[in-house]
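G., the chain you wanted modeled:
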Amino acid sequence: MIRTINAWLNWLILLTPRWLPALLLVPVLYLIGWIKAKTLTLFGLPDDAVSLVGTLFSFLMFVVLMPRWVRLRWHRSSPWQTLGLRSSTSSRSSRTASFLGGLLRAGLLLTLVVVPLVLGHWIQWQGQGSWRLVGDALLLLFGVGLAEELIFRGWLWEELNQLLGPRVGMIGQALIFSLVHTRFNLGVWPMLGLLTGLFLLGLVLALRRRLDHGSLWGCIGLHGGLVSGWFLLDQGLFELSVDAPAWLTGPGGNQPNPLGGAIGISTLALLCWRTKKQESHS
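Predicted structure as tokens:
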């Protein structure tokens, strides 16, 4: 049985044309995860939890599959080093420093968004923090930050580099990242704003990884810090006024994404330029 599964996995990973396994991987894993989660409804899993549990199953299968993928497709012997979670040159303390640096950058970006809202009296402070809120924020920090960086800046970017080359690979991963996260029911201009902000974030995160010599931990800190930080602010610490300008808060109505607002886009563009400049001087 195990030999059959191994043979099937090897066949899937080495399918031709070469781009086909990359195209099929995420949809196939998501479908399998959804089927597993749907089966659990027979044993009491609520229907509204199927999507979350299915996504968790899919990610766990992705993690289990990655070492085989890296060795067979990319011909690398150190999967987690290739994907950016380990490094042969950096210590645990340097990875921690990269992660904390990413958190700091996320905090600065969110501060730049919040300060004008405070000055414009578009925020009503609530201060309704709780341990559950903090726990949810930590899950977002490490769950979303780690999972999405492993997928987009770890697996997808390297896969696109192999298929299309480094320049197109960097642009391609940022474009796919933005398309996956954009809400297409916002209207044309809000949607374009969000696409732009997310695309710039994808570039910033890729440049950050290159500047960190292949380590993902600075990206995890920045990405996870933005998601968890905005969650903490929006869900517990303040309430946005209905009069708050969308160009500042970002598109999304009562669930805005500040990355699609004017400050988010301009700050990410500046961060992209600065990170690129740092890389050229390192």
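Residues 142 and 224 are 6 Å apart (CA to CA).

Shout if anything looks off.
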